[in-house]
Amino acid sequence: xxxxxxxxxxxxxxEHGSITGAFVLETLLSAVSLAVAAIPEGLVVVVTVLLSIGxxxxxxxxxxIRRLTAVETLGCTEVICSDKTGTLTQxxxxxxxxxxxxxxLARAMALCSDVQTxxxxxxIGDPTEVGLTAYAASLGFAKGELERTMPRVGEAPFDSVxxxxxxxxxxxxxxxxxxxxxxPDVVLSRCDTIWLDGKVQRLTPEIAAAVxxxxxxxxxxxxxxxxxxxxxxxxxPQSENPESLETGLTLIGxxxxxxxxxxxxxAAIGECRKAGIRAIMITGDHRDTAVAIAKDLGLIADxxxxxxxxxxGRQHAAKFQEPLxxxxxxxxxxDAHDGRRSDIGGLAEHLDRPVDGAKMTAExxxxxxx
Length: 370
Description:
alpha+beta; Calcium-transporting ATPase, cytoplasmic domain N; 22% strand; Rossmann fold
C-alpha cells in the first residue's frame, strides 16, 4: 500500500524515457567507480609495510611469524600443551642409576636397541637408546663388539601399545637369547623369574614388590626408568610374534636415566603465567617420573594435578583437548602424539613418527617463540 506512490513515479519516468538502459549502465559504473575509489591504490602497500615493521619488532623479541593469521590465534591462546622430551628437556639421556646385575643389564640394554655407529664412532639413533648404549660402552661393552659375539637374528619392534621391544640373538654355544626392554611394570608382568645374586630365582610377590619400589624410587627422582629381561632358547623360535616371544621372561633389572631440563623453560613458564596462559606437559613417561619433572618445572604442586590417559594416538589427543574448552596452542614431540587444535600449533601428520620436539616445532609452527 505504502509503495504505490513510488511505483507510479517509476512507471511515469519509464514512460517518459527518463530511465533507459544507458542510464542504468552509467549508474552501475558510477557505483563501481565510487567503490574502487574508496580503497586507495596504495593501501595494500601501506598495510604490508606496517605489518613488516611489526614483524621486525616482534623478531627482536624472539618471535618469528611465518603466517600473519597465526598472531590472532596466539593472542587468543589460554592453554599451551607441550611435549616433554626435547622441548621442555634437552633430550640428552644419561644413565645415572640402576638396579640388578649391572654387567648383564648393560649388555642387554645395548643389544636390545637400534643404535648405529657412524664412521667417526658417534652413536646415532633414538636419544634414549643412545644413552643406554653409551652406558654399556662406559662399562667396557661396545655395541659393535657385542653384536659380533651375539649377532641379531630376529626382533619384535617397539610400539607404544606394548611399551616394549625384543631382539633375538645367536649365542656362541649354538643357542639363542632374547633380550626385552620396556616399561618396568609391563616387562615385570611378563616375567616368571629374576636374575638375582648371580642365579635365576622365582619371581615372588615380595621380590616383585621390591622391584616396583625401586622403580618408584628412581621415578621419584625424575628419572626415566626402563626394565630389561631375557629368555633363552635351544632353537630359534619359529614365530617372532610379540605375544609368543614376550612371555616367561627372566627379569635382569632397571636403569634410571636423567634428561636435564632446558635452563630457559622455568622462566618461560613463569612468563606464561603472567600472561594468563596455562602450561601443560604431555609425556609418555611413567606417572611418577612425569609428576617429579612437572613439580621441578613448577607446573603442578602435587600429584593430584596429574592426569593419565590411554591409549595414545589421534583419539587420545582429541579426548585430552576437549576438557580444556579453550584455545589450545600445542607443542610438538615424540611421546605426546599431539593433534591439531589451533592455527599456531599441531603436528597431526606426525602422530606415529618419533620426532625431535624442538626441531619439529621450529619447522612446522606458524609462530616460533625463541
